[in-house]
Amino acid sequence: MRGPSAALRKHVKWLKQLQKEMGEERSKIEEEHQQDEKKKERMKKFCEKQRDAVKSLLTSDFDVKQEHLEQAVQVSRKDKDGKRIKPLWAMTENEKDKFQEEEANELLAFADNLDFDQYIGDLEFRQNLEVLKDRAGKLVQEQDSFKEDIVNQFNEDEETTAAGSPREDAENRSLDLEGSSLGIGEGVDGLGGKKSRRSKKMEGAPDWDSSTCCGDELQSAVADEDRDMAAKILEQNPGVRAIHSEKSIQKILEKQRDEKANIAFPRPPIPAYGAITTIRHTEEDMAFVRRETLPEKANSPMAPQVDIYYEAQTDHCTKGKNFVVLSGSNSQTWAYNDLIVKMRSLGFCTLTFDWRSHGRSEDTPGDISSELFMLDASAIIRKVFGNEKVHIFSWSLGGFVGYQLAIFKPEQVASLIVYGSTSCWSEIAEGTSECIDSVNMVKRIFSKGALMRLIGLANEKPLVSSALNVKVPANGHFPFLDLYFNTVRMEQKVKGPNVWLQVQGSKTFGQLNKIQCPVLQITVEHEGLASGATLHTMQVEAKRIKKAEPPVMLKDTSGAGYSHFAMWEEGGLELMFGHIQAFYGKYA
């Protein structure tokens, strides 16, 4: 009798293998089923504990908030001794403050005692650091793309208010006024749009009168922003709640801000009359900017809305006698305090403000240009003084913007003083009267962001002092320069000067004959090193302006020449103010 065939043997072997695999599969299914049952049981017990915790919270007399409910459903935490930590909602006010204070101190102590060299030497840490760097680069690209999309949406907004909306009653006006800052007719305000978080905090105050104040409110707004940021961090990173509290994160943010600012040169405090308002330009305004700006920049994204910090004193002054400062690149309102005091003594109502991406104003995404600055200035002037004309004092980049304001907004400008600036934006060669677009070496150097970062904050002041022949006192202490170069964040410092490279000098120079108001030009011996506004350059420009006074060259009593910062050098303001007072004696 023949034995089983080879095919039969293979079939039997396959059946046995199949039986074994089916047995293993059944065992695996049973094991998974048991694990699911155990998981369900654990989940059931956990949910019961959560329900009990929430029920206990809701039946208590405590004022229940969303954060308390979130804490109630989280796994209970333990302190360093292994004791269960009472949830925040169940703590008394004193217990809560003490708990958050201890957390913040422990976190700061950990940061202060951190052995960075030990961490950086660890292979796993270095590998993770490389991953983070790669991820950070991607996030920066995504963030930049997101900002650009937002600006594009702003520019394409079809719901922007057109010019011609009526001004609301003076007693009911808020910071949410609408209208165009370009070509505005009688009784239309050039401000509007959505209120920013900072401006909303002041919405209870009247729009503008002598009692307007926000010193305390604005300072507390910084703390509010830290609190909001801390809450946002906890909301977006639930795992952080197991380590940090809102108060501890707030302390970290405060510490970071203090470390970034050079606390040896703190900015002067915000005065009681300081305020922030939201400016929103219409599509008509932005079309003007794109049309008038440098052609290659015409399609660059620019933000039509910005929060502007300003200081206006409209009490105890002569109505209609209005004085406005247009500051230079990276300059801030505090720089003009001495000049404002002098103008107030002459009975002027005064206004100073920080340009966008300067000082306490918002650093907007996208590009900036002198034309956009001009519209911002027009809007904030109308915000404070309505349809009244103003006398403008302008310096450096503000001087160029002052020329543009007098050209495009003649209905707002009663007179114009330009100090240390030129409409040509470059020096006009001796023996000629032709403006040729060019940017001198000093402007090119100090407009390069990469170079400024390389030079660093500590070296910029002596470098500028040397390049512009600044008269620094023998002791080396120049309060204005100390503040000027140590209170501006690097991100802002390298952004503003980029406008220098986009100025269309010859175009503005060619439009000087459109200026209708009286103009006084002031320069100094070494001004050619900075703005190019030499005496000859100003004399050529004055001939093109209908009501120009003879340009003034400032020199001290010894005959020595001043620099671009003459107004803040010893005796400079006093000498300049004599010419300012004489000019306003004729025209104000």
Q: Features of this protein?
A:
588 residues; alpha/beta; eight-stranded mixed beta sheet; 20 helices; 46% helix; elongated
Descriptive overview:
Helix 7 (215-236) crosses helix 8 (246-260). It is elongated and about 115 Å long. The relative contact order is 0.07. The chain starts with 5 loop residues before the first helix and ends with a helix. It is an alpha/beta fold and 588 residues long. The chain has helices at residues 6-58, 66-72, 93-112, 116-120, 123-155, 197-200, 215-236, 246-260, 283-292, 337-345, 370-385, 397-408, 441-446, 449-455, 457-467, 479-486, 490-493, 505-509, 535-542, 572-587; strands spanning 274-280, 305-313, 322-326, 349-353, 390-395, 413-419, 519-524, 552-554. Strands 1-2-4-3-5-6-7-8 form an 8-stranded mixed beta sheet, with helices on both faces. The chain is built from 20 helices and 8 strands. Among the domains are: 174-214 and 270-587, Rossmann fold (3-Layer(aba) Sandwich), CATH 3.40.50; 216-265. Helix 19 links the parallel strand 7 and strand 8.
